[in-house]
Amino acid sequence: MIEQTSKPNSQRPLYEQVKEQLLAKIDEGTYLPLAQLPSEHELSEQFNVSRITIRQALHRLSQEGVIFKVHGKGTFVSKPKAYQNISQLQGFAEAMSHSGHHIVNEVLSVKFVAAPLKVAAKLKLPVRSEVTEIKRVRLLNNEPVSYELTYLPKVIGKKLFEQQVDLRSTDIFKSLEEELQIPLGYADLNIDAITADDELAELLSIDVHTPILRVERLTHDAQNHPLDYEFLYFSGESFQYQLRIYR
After folding, report:
1. Fewer beta carbons within 10 Å, N or C terminal of the chain?
2. Other Cβ atoms within 10 Å of 173 Cβ, number
3. At residue 144, what are phi and psi to the nearest 5 degrees?
4. C-alpha closest to that of 103 among 135, 144, 134
5. Tens digits of residue pLDDT in 165-183
6. Contacts of 97 (CB under 8 A, 6+ apart)
7. pLDDT for the residue numbered 55
8. Partners of 215 in beta bridges
9. pLDDT of the residue at 10
10. Residues 66-109 pLDDT 10s
11. How far is CA 133 from CA 31, 158, 229, in A?
């Protein structure tokens, strides 16, 4: 039944009271991520309210992304999304480790290639210059959450190799600053949504044509020289960017 802290004559609708108590049970771990909630009938008896009230409470929780329904199977608790604040220039592992998440990088390839025209232009390199190309899948709590395609000037890549930087466990930003003593300045970001092709779907363990977040980022050093040009592809099911702005 509705807990005694919720007064019968409260001006707050019953469904709001039920919603808050369900949310509290989710927050305290009574219902874990991806766990199935009791049926509407069971919740109706548990809270001693009508099924219409339960349905309204579940609808509100669904709108807020706390739960989701699977047709023919029931209602489940959503998996919390990891998020990164983009008002700070941070590497992915640096941001996630501060939130208590475990990050592992699967390095797909590291090689020197002829810079595509756009890459050469962004890094202000002569046409046909060689650049260091790094492809990695980032695993968040052992699940693939992003694919990163990074381009660095060849000289920077060679220095990373000379320092034997382990790209499986280290952010490139951290390596640039700590191993190569290159202070970072700022980054320009472009963010859009695309659908996953066959390659991205396989890398991120999602269905083909699933919407994903694409971030184009050009990072400059403290002297305003372009240093790191990359494309980041994030699974929207597991990750989100957050930004606080002021008037």
Report:
1. C
2. 20
3. -65, 125
4. 144
5. 888 888 899 899 999 999 9
6. 103
7. 94
8. 191, 232
9. 61
10. 888 888 888 988 766 666 666 667 666 666 665 556 678 899 99
11. 44, 11, 10
Separation in Å, CA 146 to CA 81, 151, 172, 235, 243? 13, 16, 15, 6, 19
Q: Report d(CA 201, CA 189) in Å as an integer.
A: 23
Q: Which two tokens stand for residue 179?
A: 């191993």
Q: How far apart are CA 135 and CA 148, in angstroms?
A: 6
Q: 19: alpha, beta or left, given left = phi > 0 and alpha = psi -120 to 50?
A: alpha
Is residue 222 within 8 Å of residue 183, measured between CB atoms?
A: yes
Q: How open is the CA angle 48-79-90, to the nearest 5 degrees?
A: 140
Which amino acid would we find at residue 237?
Answer: E
